[in-house]
Predict the 3D structure of the following.
Amino acid sequence: MLVAMQFLLIALIMLVGPLWPTLWSVKGMMVLGGSIALWSFLAMGLGNIRALPEIPQHGRLVVHGPYRWVRHPMYTSLLLITLGWVVERPMPLRMILWVGLVVTLWVKLCYEEQFLLARFPEYDAYRLQTNRLIPLIW
């Protein structure tokens, strides 16, 4: 359900206003988000990637690449890209949808961390030294 809600909110944020940004600062924000996503995919490897917050049977704990600085860089990238759409055309509906996306991803990452703690004993130490979404902040 959380994954469906996440994709629905992203689609609605995209469709409510213009899709392609005109502001260079917004383009930069979205390129940064896309770059973090690509880096995350490369660091994680295809075998570990899942849309659902569950760990594959052969999964491994990834703590290199962008995972050195944040535990959920793919969520960070999604929030940066979608925030770009909100900043490009700040409409109340887009802002509400973005806040909904933040809440949905927050619930999803808390759920995912339960799986990670149960599967990888070293995850507890990793999460104590690494921020969730924003390096050095949160």
